[in-house]
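Lecture notes, unit on binding sites. The following record was shown on slide 14. It pairs a sequence with nicotinamide-adenine-dinucleotide.
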Amino acid sequence: MLIEPKIIGGVCLSAHPLGLKKALEQQIEYVKEAGEITMPKRVLVLGGSTGYGLATRISSAFGGCAGTINISLERVPTEKKPASPGWYSNMYFDEAAKKEGLIAESLNADAFAHETRLTVIDKIRELFGQVDLVVYSLASPARKDPNSNEIYKSVLKPLGKTYTAKSVDFIRKTVAEVSIEAATEEEELNTVKVMGGGDWMLWINALLEANVLAEGAKSIAYSYIGPEITYAIYRSGTIGSAKENLEKTAGALDSMLKSIGGEAFVSVNKALVTRASSVIPVVPLYISLLYKIMKEKGIHEGCIEQMYRMLRTKIYGPNGTLRDENGLVHMDDWEMRKDVQDLIGARWDKINNENLESLTDIKGFREDFMRLHGFDWPSVDYGADVNPMG
Ligand code: NAD
């Protein structure tokens, strides 16, 4: 069948297997060229099919020679409908890793469910005995509480009052003001239920109890803080409440893991185009401006560069995990540089429909977005028939 981009409201509903294969190969190549990471060899990734989780998995496997188990939830393909992007990435990742003699297992399952934890514990025992690193990189719009079976939905809204700001339609390349109503208290609590640390805590508890965490095991989850310009919608919004909860949970898990000489912490990553971030209002415009400035300064990174640098220099470097006084690892160090943020502040108010292409890297944002779904690769013939089964 022919597979074309099908984009509705900033969400792409189709995915092209050949483009996703290219994207995976490019990330593997980057890591191989960047050189070896000295790290332990048994890694569990929760949410490792796309974005930051996939980049951590690729860096661990192809940089650190680690075996990996990944749990993610992706739509499977049919003869008539392509899968969601991560399904293809998992398939190609497992193939590529196995070719190099690495253990690689991808499970398509709801990571929030207790049954999945039990299946994963069995898998760890079968393949590794224990794991040395647990990466928590889930991003989801909803979560079914495994104890009450209640379904919670997350929202991306400000708190307290309606927020009006500039936002971009990155497909049409137009700027417009958007107003987002403040979240209710319930919406805030629900967002914390989905994107906070509750599920991470359940995972580490279960893994500890089953004795499948190795001596010295580490666990990382990912967060974002960003500059004041995005506070209303991010850090001081519903998602920010969830991230604060996640960071607090890291403290509790860190204490628990001391019993095995391990640690838990949060890495604050750079704002990047992923399936999760492209649906946050205001953020795509901020990312487009950020890309432009960081590319001009030669310090732009994508997920793979971020996660490779994190593992090699900030977690498994010669001085161990490099944390700030709040226990956080900072991969937003270059994004938050004063010279970068000063330029963002100076340009933000000036952006309009006429100068969008010259002041921001809207082209780069759009291209990254398309490539997340396997489109826009010059070497792929999109006019040719492709098997959606991959
Ligand atoms: P993403 O959408 O690319 O990845 C989300 C992953 O979660 C996918 O592998 C998906 O399959 C998996 N997933 C979702 N629901 C699941 C479920 N019920 N069961 C199993 N797997 C499930 O997102 P991302 O942007 O890479 O985000 C990963 C983490 O990084 C999040 O915590 C996010 O807040 C954080 N982060 C993102 C950015 C950014 O700019 N993208 C910046 C800093 C931190």
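Take-home: The chain has a mean pLDDT of 96.
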